[in-house]
């Protein structure tokens, strides 16, 4: 089934490039605003939208499968706070959908059975204790460290680090910990402009270092194509919708991927929610996806996963090759858990 999914994924990408065919291959789903942490740069818990019911979620997963979705990434808030999250993950797997989830790690020790069902678990991690807790909250490091030691024994794990002025020198600490416990790492720029935002020069330093570490075979789950793109960009606080803005990647939001918010609003990606956007719970997933407008926003410079998908969907061979290696490494580890 895994091979069949890869073939379907490749067919949809080729059809989009050759015939401009739209398929919602990749869906990022903010499943809840609830969170048991309070991070300095996150405002999601303040939104407090009404969550979809279990029935609504399971029905939508069925609709996604029929529409051609191959991967769902659950985000929040803290997805593990939903009492039905294991049932939701099981539904994805029953529909042969590749499923990932991002967490702060607090509840990982209580969710071992769920971990075994995931294709990837992403854990937010910002570095050593004093750094992690400066970005997040007191007591958070102990919880996430426990999750990082435990989770790789049950499923493939990638840490997600958001760069701020506080953790620019934490790369080697994170990479060495990844080697020790068997997880991989990814890093993203900070979304928006804040007092803790690094400068363009500081971003150049960290992405140069990551490219060097990747060449040295450290567990960096970012393609060299994406790292080189970051090094060429140099305008990390720039947000624009100008069509002729030079240097940016072709955006596939609304063509091969989309974002669903807690309230059911659909958008090309998590940075482009429009109040006039369609709602998947009101008109259905396929209809809502087909109504999406072309996404011209350039703000996904602050999301490494979106950069990676834009590269892969644009048939960038370097990105495709790197991600085949990253995923195959994780599959070998997962098969080891199951044997």
Topology overview:
Blueprint: H1 2-19, E1 26-30, H2 54-67, E2 71-75, H3 85-94, E3 98-103, H4 112-115, E4 120-124, H5 129-135, H6 140-150, E5 157-162, H7 171-181, E6 184-188, H8 200-215, H9 224-233, E7 257-260, E8 266-267, H10 280-283, H11 285-290, H12 304-313, H13 317-338
Parallel strand pairs: 1-2, 1-7, 2-3, 3-4, 4-5, 5-6
Antiparallel strand pairs: 7-8
Helix pairs in contact: 2-3, 8-9
Mean pLDDT score, rounded? Answer: 87
Spatial strand arrangement across the major sheet: 6-5-4-3-2-1-7-8
Beta-strand percentage? 5-15%
Cα gyration radius (Å): 19 Å
* SSE order, one letter for each helix or strand: HEHEHEHEHHEHEHHEEHHHH
First-to-last CA distance: 18 Å
What's the number of helices?
13
Query: What percent of residues adopt helix (DSSP H or I)?
Result: 40-55%
> Which secondary-structure class do the elements indicate?
alpha/beta
* Main sheet overview: 8 strands, mixed
DSSP strand count: 8
What best-fitting shape do the alpha-carbon axes yield? globular
For this structure, the quaternary state is: single chain
Contiguous uncertain segments of 5+ residues: none
Account of the 3D structure:
This protein has 339 residues and is of the alpha/beta class. The protein is built from 13 helices and 8 strands. It has helices at 2-19, 54-67, 85-94, 112-115, 129-135, 140-150, 171-181, 200-215, 224-233, 280-283, 285-290, 304-313, 317-338, and strands at residues 26-30, 71-75, 98-103, 120-124, 157-162, 184-188, 257-260, 266-267. An 8-stranded mixed beta sheet has the order 6-5-4-3-2-1-7-8, with helices on one face. Helix 2 (54-67) runs parallel beside helix 3 (85-94) and helix 8 runs antiparallel to helix 9 (224-233). The model has no long low-confidence stretch (mean pLDDT 87).
């Amino acid at each position: 089934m895994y091979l069949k999914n890869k073939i379907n994924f490749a067919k949809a990408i080729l059809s989009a490039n050759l015939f401009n065919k739209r398929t919602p291959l990749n869906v990022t789903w903010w499943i809840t605003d609830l969170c048991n942490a309070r991070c300095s740069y996150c405002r999601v818990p303040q939104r407090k939208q009404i969550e979809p019911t279990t029935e609504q979620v399971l029905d939508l997963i069925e609709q996604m499968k029929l529409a051609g979705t191959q991967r769902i990434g659950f985000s929040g808030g803290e997805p593990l706070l939903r009492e039905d999250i294991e049932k939701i993950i099981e539904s994805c797997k029953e529909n042969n959908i590749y499923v990932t989830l991002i967490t702060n790690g607090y509840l990982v020790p209580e969710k071992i059975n769920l971990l075994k069902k995931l294709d990837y678990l992403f854990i937010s991690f910002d570095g050593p204790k004093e750094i992690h807790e400066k970005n997040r909250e007191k007591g958070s490091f102990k919880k996430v460290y426990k999750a990082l030691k435990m989770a790789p024994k049950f499923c493939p794990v990638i840490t997600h680090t958001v760069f701020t002025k506080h953790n620019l020198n934490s790369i080697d600490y994170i990479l060495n910990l990844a080697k020790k416990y068997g997880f991989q790492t990814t890093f993203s720029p900070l979304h928006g402009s804040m007092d803790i935002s690094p400068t363009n020069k500081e971003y150049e330093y960290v992405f140069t270092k990551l490219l060097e570490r990747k060449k040295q075979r450290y567990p960096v789950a970012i393609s060299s194509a994406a790292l080189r793109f970051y090094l060429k960009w140099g305008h990390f606080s720039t947000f624009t919708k100008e069509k002729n803005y030079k240097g940016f990647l072709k955006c596939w939001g609304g063509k091969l991927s989309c974002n669903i918010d807690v309230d059911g609003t659909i958008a090309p990606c998590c940075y482009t929610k429009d109040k006039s956007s369609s709602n998947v719970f009101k008109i259905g997933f396929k209809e809502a996806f087909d109504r999406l407008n072309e996404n011209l926003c350039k703000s996904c410079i602050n999301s490494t996963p979106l950069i990676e998908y834009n590269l892969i969907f644009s048939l960038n061979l370097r990105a495709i090759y790197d991600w085949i290696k990253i995923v195959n490494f994780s599959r070998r580890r997962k098969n080891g858990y199951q044997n």
